[in-house]
Every structure is written in structure tokens, then in C-alpha cells.
Amino acid sequence: MRVFLVKKGSELPDWLRSAATATGADAPLSLQRLQALNPHLDFSQLAPGSVVLVPGDGNALGAAASQAPPAAGQALADFMTLAADGIKAAQQALRDAAAARQADDAAVATALASETVRALLARDAELQAQASAAVAGAQQDAKAAAADLKTLAVLAKAVPQELAALGRLLDA
After folding, report:
1. Residue 118's pLDDT is what?
2. What is the residue-level pLDDT of the chain in tens, covering all 172 positions?
3. How far apart are alpha carbons 151 and 69 in whole angstroms?
4. 71, 143 contact by CB (below 8 A)
5. Which residue stretches of the chain are H helix?
6. Contact, 58 vs 2, CB < 8 A?
7. Which residues are within 8 A (CB) of 97 and not within 5 positions of it... i.e. 6 or more apart?
8. In angstroms, rounded to a whole number, what is the distance separating the alpha carbons of residues 157 and 98?
9. What torsion, rounded to 10 degrees, do the Cα atoms 155, 159, 162, 165 define?
10. Exposure class string for 142-169: b at 16+ Cβ within 10 A, else e
């Protein structure tokens, strides 16, 4: 499979323009095949930045098509890097948020342990219920954050493997 990137101000190559008028089973590339591979595109209005997936190695489509980069070429490698960097950034953001939450929880625990607050809580059942609910909510948030970190760790391992498998499929 090959990839063609529509650039600003560029005309479509002959092989892509002729695909729009190709008909019959003998046509090396028909608009129907292109649309099946690219359901996200409107071939009557290809905008700059559009990525067109082309079946096969492109050799039957002429020199311009066969020179289009393989689908799993640099674009996929760049995407793999972006995905890995994004996951790492999300992991760091969660760790930072967890550290801030722990500091807040420690401050709340210190306040709740003070004699003044304990005396207030002992005299006001509603206030005591609110404090208990806040502590329980903080504990649930901490558990959710830990689960999110585990999920991101799984993603950090799985995403590169899945994208590599996709690259092998696209190059096949």
C-alpha cells in the first residue's frame, strides 16, 4: 500500500486524476477502490493535507504512484513517536496530579486531626458527614488515578506493538 499526501497548491498526479474516470474490472485503480480504501475522503474536493491510501505497490498506476511512500513509511514512524510521547506526557501529568492530590490530602488530614476541627466535627453531625464524604471521595480519586496509570502503562506497551503490526499489514 502507498500513501499520497495532497499538498497545498499541488495538482493531483495523473494516476489519481485518471482514477476518477477509470471504469471496469481491468482498470488498475478505480475510484470505487480508492473510495473503499479512503472512506474519509471526498475525491471531488481533496483538501491540502488529505492523505490518500493507494492499494498495492502502485507500480500499475504509473511512476508517480509507485514513488509515493509506503503507507508504513516515515508518516507511521512519526505517528508512533507522537503516540509514545503523548502517552508519556499523560503518564507524567497523572503522576504530577497524584502528587498534588497527595499533598492536598495530607493538608486535609492534618486539619481534620486538629483539636479545633475535631471539636467542631463532634458537635455537628452534618459537618462530620461532609468531612467523611470528602475523605472517601479523595480515596476514590486516588484509586481511580492509580487505575489510570496502570491503563497508560498497558497502552505504553501495546500501542507500539499494534502500530508495528499495522505497519507490517500496510507494507504487505
Report:
1. 95
2. 667 777 775 556 665 666 655 555 555 566 777 788 888 888 777 777 788 777 765 555 544 445 555 555 677 788 888 899 999 999 999 999 999 999 999 999 999 999 999 999 999 999 999 999 999 999 999 999 999 999 999 999 999 999 888 887 776 5
3. 34
4. no
5. 14-19, 31-37, 63-66, 74-113, 115-123, 125-171
6. yes
7. 145
8. 22
9. -150
10. eeebeeeeeebeebeeebeeebeeebee
CA gap 128, 118 in Å, rounded: 9
Delimit the domains of the chain by residue range.
2-66, 74-171
What was the pLDDT predicted at 64? 47
The helix-helix angle for 125-171 and 74-113 (nearest 10°) equals 170
Asked whether 148 and 94 are in contact (CB, 8 A), the reply is yes
Q: Residue 123 is placed in which grid cell?
A: 458537635
**Model pTM score:** 0.55
Residue 23 is placed in which grid cell? 471504469
d(CA 156, CA 105): 29
CA quadruple 126, 128, 129, 133: dihedral sign = positive
